[in-house]
């Protein structure tokens, strides 16, 4: 096989080239490093460079499915021994991690070469990636627009062709939102599918899930095979899958009953391009033999919103207070952004009773979604209520959380639901606006059934391939092909 272009390959494809001896892991690492150096001044995707560590790993990569593949960790929960995990916050500077976390260990065992950490909003609070510490990450499809958040740096790096996949995590949509904004695959696994150890067993009563963003469905599936499964001491575990997730990608989807919605659960229509995306995908699903019904679960979104804010604010307060307790650092408006400070103070006022009522609300929502999924195999919406926002749409210095979040209330109407209920959901790059901006379609499934979502995703990837989108949608004003397709003569092998 000719190695014509680095960015044409997904992670498994690059690993296959290494296994065949057509290219070395060290050459791949150097190509990724050169792309970081070339594109990061514009994109601001990578905020911590770990080139020496990555080069050393590439000399003798672990013999996993992704042996020799360049990779990036997110600057939230992406702990590497001796390296700071700043979470995009000035408060967290100067605090190197004492050890690799469990997920980092499993990434390494999969064979990847870790070359750095990616940009995030402070403590992952926003669906955009902009912070006082790092500045904004910029979207490769249009640098004036957001990458989404909070895994926005990872999304930008993958979309730009710097790495084929990157670490991401999701507490309210933070895998799926950047996937939608950057034209990628973003799977939020079932609660507890991936570990949070060794220091943590749970975060925010199960809201947080770990995984990656990728360019292909099979990479997302294969990496989940590498990382999933409990570790000793976990407070709970996800249902054991029927077969390896990569095998699911190869299985027929079957005839599914799929619900879809063009309105949020408050009855408000999403952006016209999002409506168009849902309607076109619903038609495609019918052509593929699925039963498609326009309907939605009956969820109390006012209860959902109140519960989510209570748990989110209390969880933030816990993290900041724990940092202060163990380091002696004093949280203040000098080392926290305005929004973070306001939400921190709100979180400190949440009572134990209020917190437990919020958790109970999540459980009620989970039961309602479970009832819904006894009838429907999947629920399709757009991932977001609109195409990627322009930069500076959110004022990170606003101390009133309600005012700060107001501009994005209609932007993220769906994603937090699956965090509250624990069920899996996947965002797929199935639509682009006339301006060349991606719009993700999201499919939510039953608790523990990532396999069904992966089978459906693979079918849609075949029916409406997005691999060639970079080169097809490029214009003079749209730099995506520039970032995604840089010729490198050293790598061109006939």
Structural class: alpha+beta
The residue-averaged pLDDT reads: 94
Q: In angstroms, what separates the terminal alpha carbons?
A: 8 Å
**The CATH fourth-level homologous superfamily:** Amidase signature (AS) domain
Shape: globular
Helix content: 25-40%
Strand element count: 13
Give the percentage of residues in beta strands: 5-15%
What name does CATH use for the topology? Amidase signature (AS) enzymes
Helical segment count: 17
Q: How many independent structural domains?
A: 1
Describe this structure in words.
With 494 residues, the chain is an alpha+beta fold. The protein has a single domain, classed as Amidase signature (AS) enzymes, CATH 3.90.1300. The chain is 38% helix and 14% strand. It is built from 17 helices and 13 strands. The protein has helices spanning 11-19, 25-43, 51-59, 102-109, 152-159, 176-182, 217-227, 245-249, 272-287, 301-327, 338-348, 352-372, 401-405, 415-421, 450-463, 469-472, 480-484, and strands at residues 46-49, 70-74, 113-118, 138-139, 142-146, 165-170, 185-188, 209-214, 257-260, 291-294, 378-382, 425-432, 438-445. The strands form three sheets. Strands 6-8-7-12-13-11-9-10 form an eight-stranded mixed β-sheet, with helices on both faces. The protein has a three-stranded mixed β-sheet with strand order 1-3-2. It has a two-stranded antiparallel sheet with strand order 4-5. Strand 9, helix 9 (272-287) and strand 10 form a beta-alpha-beta unit. Helix 5 (152-159) packs parallel to helix 6 (176-182), helix 10 crosses helix 11 (338-348) and helix 10 packs across helix 12. It is globular. It starts with 10 loop residues before the first helix and ends in a 10-residue tail after the last helix. Residues 471-494 have low confidence and may be disordered.
């Amino acid at each position: 096989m000719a190695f014509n272009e680095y960015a044409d390959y997904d992670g498994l494809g690059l690993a296959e080239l290494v296994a065949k001896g057509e290219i070395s892991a060290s050459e791949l690492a150097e190509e990724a490093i050169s792309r970081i150096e070339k594109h990061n001044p514009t994109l601001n995707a990578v905020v911590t460079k770990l080139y020496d560590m990555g080069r050393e790993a590439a000399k003798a990569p672990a013999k996993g499915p992704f042996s020799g593949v360049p990779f990036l960790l997110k600057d939230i929960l992406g702990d590497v021994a001796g390296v700071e995990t700043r979470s995009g916050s000035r408060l967290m500077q100067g605090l190197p991690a004492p050890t690799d976390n469990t997920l980092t260990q499993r990434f390494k065992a999969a064979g990847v070469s870790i070359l750095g950490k990616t940009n995030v909003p402070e403590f992952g609070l926003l669906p955009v990636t902009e912070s006082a510490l790092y500045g904004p990450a910029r979207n490769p499809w249009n640098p004036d627009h957001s990458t989404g958040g909070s895994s926005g740096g990872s999304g930008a790096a993958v979309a730009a062709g710097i790495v084929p996949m990157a670490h991401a995590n999701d507490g309210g949509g933070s895998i799926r939102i950047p996937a939608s904004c950057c034209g990628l695959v973003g799977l939020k696994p079932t609660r507890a599918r991936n570990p949070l150890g060794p220091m943590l067993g749970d975060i925010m009563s199960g809201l947080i899930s770990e995984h990656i963003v990728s360019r292909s469905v099979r990479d997302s599936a294969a990496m989940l095979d590498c990382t999933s499964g409990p570790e000793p001491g976990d407070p709970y575990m996800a249902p054991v899958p029927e077969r390896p997730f990569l095998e699911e990608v190869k299985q027929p989807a079957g005839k599914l009953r799929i619900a879809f919605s063009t309105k949020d659960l408050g009855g408000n229509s999403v952006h016209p391009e999002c409506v168009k995306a849902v309607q076109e995908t619903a038609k495609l699903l019918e052509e593929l033999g699925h039963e498609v019904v326009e309907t939605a679960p009956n969820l109390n979104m006012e209860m959902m919103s109140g519960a989510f804010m209570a748990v989110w604010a209390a969880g933030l307060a816990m993290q900041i207070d724990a940092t202060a307790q163990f380091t002696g650092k004093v949280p203040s408006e000098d080392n926290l952004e305005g929004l973070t400070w306001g939400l921190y103070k709100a979180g400190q006022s949440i009572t134990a009773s209020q917190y437990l009522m919020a958790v109970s609300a999540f459980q009620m929502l989970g039961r309602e979604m479970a009832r819904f999924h006894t009838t429907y195999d999947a629920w399709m919406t757009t991932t977001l209520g609109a195409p990627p926002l322009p930069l500076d749409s959110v004022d990170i210095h606003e101390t009133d959380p309600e005012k700060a979040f107001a501009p994005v209330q209609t932007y993220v109407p769906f994603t937090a639901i699956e965090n509250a209920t624990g069920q899996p959901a996947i965002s797929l790059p199935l639509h682009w606006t006339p301006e060349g901006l991606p719009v993700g379609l999201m499919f939510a499934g039953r608790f523990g059934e990532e396999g069904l979502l992966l089978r459906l995703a693979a079918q849609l990837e075949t029916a409406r391939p997005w691999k060639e989108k970079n080169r097809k949608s490029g214009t003079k004003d749209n730099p995506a092909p520039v970032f995604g397709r840089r010729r490198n003569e050293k790598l061109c092998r006939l």
